[in-house]
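Fold this sequence, please.
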Amino acid sequence: MTNLETTYLGLKLKNPIIVGSSGLTNSVEKIRKLHQAGAGAVVLKSLFEEQINHDVDRTIYQGAGMDYPEAMDYIKAYSRNNSVTEYLDLIKEAKAAVDIPVIASINCYSSDEWIDFAQQIEKAGADALELNLFVVNSDKNSNPSDYEEMYYKIAKTVSQVISIPIAMKLGLYFSNLVAVVDKLSVSGAKGVVLFNRFYEPDIDINNMTLTAAEVFSSPADIRRSLRWVAIVSDKINNIDVAASTGVHDGDAVIKQLLAGARAVQVCSAVYKQGPEIVTRMLEKLESWMKEQKFENIDQFRGQMSYGKMKNPAVYERAQFMKYFSKFE
C-alpha cells in the first residue's frame, strides 16, 4: 500500500502538500474545503504588523477631531488587540475544525512584536509558526551582513520564547543562501521555505503610474526553487526544506520531493484551479509511486538532490548561453 506520510518541522503530515499562507487560508470554511481536498497541512494567512498599524491609523483618521490624547491611545490599543484577537480565534477554530497541522504565519518589522505575537500564537494552539521577513535593502552604505544578521537574531529570539517549531520563509536574494540557511539552522529555525513570493512592481506607461506585476506564479517559476531545494536539502542536514513557488501540478510536487523537499507548499495553483487541484496532485503522486514501485516517500526523497547526482555541477550551471548557444 502506498504511504504518502511525511514529517515537516517535527510534525507528522498525512502527505507532503501544504497550502501556503494566503487568502485561501483566512477562514475556517476555506480551511475545511482544503482539508477535504486532501491538504496535509495549512499555513494561515499572515498576521501583518504593517496591516494592523494601517487599520489603526485609518480608524484614527476616520475619527479626526478627537480632542483627547487618551481617546487616541485607547483606540490604538483596541484596534490592535482586536486584529490580533481575530487571528488567534482563527487558530483556535481551525484547530477544532480539522485534524491536520495548522501553521501560523506572522510578518513583522519591529522586533518586540515578533516576540509578542509568537507567544500569543503558541498559546492559541498553533502547531508551528512560519516567520515571513523581507526588507528591500536600498541603502548603498549598509553592510549586507547586518541584513542577514536580522534573520538570525529573529530566529534565535523567537525560538527561545516559544516551544513550537519555527520556519523561516526566505526570499531568493542572498549572496550565499546555503550559508544563510546553515546559520538559521543553529539559530533556532527548524525549517526554511524556499521561496517567498513578494510584491513586484510594474509600470503603466500610459498613465505613468506604478502598478502591481502578476500576483500568481506560473509553472515555469519552479526553476527558481528547484535548484536551491536540491542544493540546500543536501548540504544542510539539520533543517527541513519546504519547496514553494511554481508548484502547479503533481509532476511539480514529485520533482520537489526528488530534489529533497520534505514538504511542498502550493498557493497560486489553488487560486487558479480550486481546492480540487490538491486532490489531483495527490492522485498523480500516488500513481507515480506505484509505477516506480515506491512504498513510501522516504524511498525516493532526495534521489535527485545535489549530492546524489553523478555530476552535481548540473545544479551549479549559471551561464545560459554556454548550454544553448547552438540555437540560432
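The radius of gyration is 21 Å. DSSP finds eleven helices and 13 strands in the chain.
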